[in-house]
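Before relying on records like the one below, remember that each one covers exactly one chain. Contacts with other chains, cofactors or solvent are not represented anywhere in the record.
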Amino acid sequence: MGAAYFYHLTRRPLEETLAMLLGKAQGAGWRVAVRGGDAGRLAWLDERLWLGVEDGFLAHGIAGGPHDADQPVLLTTGPAANGATCVMSVDGAEVSADEVAAMERVCVLFDGNDPEALDVARGQWKALKDAGASAQYWSEESGRWEKKAET
């Protein structure tokens, strides 16, 4: 059974934190689906991931291409089409307790400087907790990632 890790972003931008987490996921041997709610926003993230650090090449693709199943990291607005064992939710994209149970890890990244994003993340936390899913809350408020809560 997996767990949901909530990442409260307050210092680093989404694209930087996402790249770091994707690198860790690939190091663990996981295939990842990055789920968002807007195709335009995912195209923007795609560009940022290609422009990442020079020594940190991150192979990935956007859903809808002929090789979706082969992508180690697939940016998508829907279900994972790449056999993902990890889902990273951005911009409030939905995740379910069943999905948390089926995956190695589900990561929910949200902008702590956006009140609407905070409300969505709180709702996701409560829904997963109420459904019995294992969850952890991580904050970078101090300048480094620290676990602040766990269910």
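The two ends are 14 Å apart (CA to CA).
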